[in-house]
User: Which sequence fits this backbone?
């Protein structure tokens, strides 16, 4: 853990006992928030934290992570020390780079991006962004950077769209910015957005039967103060081996065999659980639409649920189940960020919409349309 981040972490922990013993309502966060005339919901919206977390921190029931403490301090226009430090002076690098999430292993390559005023390090992991040159290497607690200025020119998107690589390429060409796509399901992407660790989260819970579900889920998980921009509509269904002639979804579900299962909490897993009617499906958990298709193609899984694009590219048969709407979600306060504006412009462009419409199972007629939550 870098020196400044460790100092901030220790300062927050040392303040926790004082807050627990203090009278209700005496937390500096409460005092500063009320002086501004803000409710807990307003502070949650401005800081990007869940309202329940703000309430728990104010009541002394939750010791916040460093990232949450910094987010609260920025929203309230003060320093972390004023909220948690008891007057101590921090080292100069307290606002230096910190990990968005901890890397695994000893040495690790990373990318760097500025998110809501913080410089965050993102561990290089598999997926679309893994082909993007790294910005530095972390080893034994020491960060060795490349000295580039890409942090302020980088937009971080968490989503599971298998076509996100095309989007990243187009985005770089059209804007001069860099798009990092970290592979995450809708639920985890929204969690990262709520914690202020990414700029944009992809969510695809809306269907023809429930077209407003994306907005409802965002409001339920994060509250209000968010914007949605439609990325695409896509076909979701079952991927089967090329020689599997089954033509009914129910027959596949009842037919047994091993499954390529998405992680619990993902939209694909919830859809598959619904199709199975509570029947336990046996198989192995994989992450992402392409991983589902590869598992079926390789032969160790009979079937799995993914988007048509992934199944077609793997040369598999595909049984459509439903159409889902993929929206990109970001905080309304970031709507003026040039990197976010560049993304919205790209989604609205004729060239991008034509490219999306040519992908198997994708529909771009609503691409670029925006709404508020």
Assistant:
């Amino acid at each position: 853990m870098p020196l400044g981040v460790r100092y901030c972490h220790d300062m927050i922990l040392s303040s926790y006992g004082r807050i627990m013993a203090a009278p209700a309502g005496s937390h500096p966060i409460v005092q500063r928030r009320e002086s501004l005339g803000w409710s807990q919901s307003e502070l949650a919206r401005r800081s990007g934290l869940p309202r329940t977390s703000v309430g728990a921190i104010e009541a002394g029931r939750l010791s916040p992570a460093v990232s949450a403490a910094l987010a609260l301090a920025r929203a309230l226009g003060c320093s972390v020390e004023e909220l948690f430090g008891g007057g101590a002076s921090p080292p100069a690098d307290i606002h230096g780079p910190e990990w968005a999430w901890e890397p695994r292993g000893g040495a690790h390559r990373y990318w760097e991006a500025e998110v809501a005023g913080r410089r965050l390090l993102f561990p290089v992991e598999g997926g679309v962004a893994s082909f993007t040159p790294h910005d530095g290497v972390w080893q034994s607690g020491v960060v060795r950077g490349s000295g580039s200025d890409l942090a302020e020119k980088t937009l971080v998107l968490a989503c599971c769209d298998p076509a996100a690589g095309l989007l990243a390429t187009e985005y770089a060409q059209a804007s001069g910015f860099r798009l990092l796509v970290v592979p995450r399901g809708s639920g985890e992407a929204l969690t990262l957005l709520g914690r202020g660790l990414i700029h944009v989260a992809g969510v695809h819970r809306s269907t023809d039967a429930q077209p407003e579900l994306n907005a409802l889920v965002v409001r339920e998980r994060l509250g209000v103060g968010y914007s949605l921009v439609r990325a695409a509509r896509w076909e979701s269904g079952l991927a089967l081996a090329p020689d599997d002639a089954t033509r009914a979804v129910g027959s596949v579900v009842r037919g047994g065999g091993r499954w390529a299962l998405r992680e619990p909490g993902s939209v694909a897993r919830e859809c598959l659980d619904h199709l199975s009617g509570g029947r336990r499906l046996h198989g192995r958990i994989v992450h992402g639409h392409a991983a589902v298709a590869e598992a079926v193609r390789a032969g160790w899984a009979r079937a799995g649920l993914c988007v048509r694009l992934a199944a077609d590219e793997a040369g598999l048969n595909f049984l459509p189940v439903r159409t889902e709407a993929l929206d990109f979600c970001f905080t309304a306060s970031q709507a003026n960020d040039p990197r976010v504006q560049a993304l919205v412009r790209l989604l609205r462009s004729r060239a991008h919409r034509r490219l999306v419409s040519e992908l198997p199972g994708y529909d771009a007629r609503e691409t670029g349309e925006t709404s508020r939550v």
User: Anything to note?
Assistant: The first strand starts at residue 98 and ends at 99. The radius of gyration is 22 Å. Residues 210 and 324 are 9 Å apart (CA to CA). Confidence is low (pLDDT under 50) at residues 1-5, 87-95.
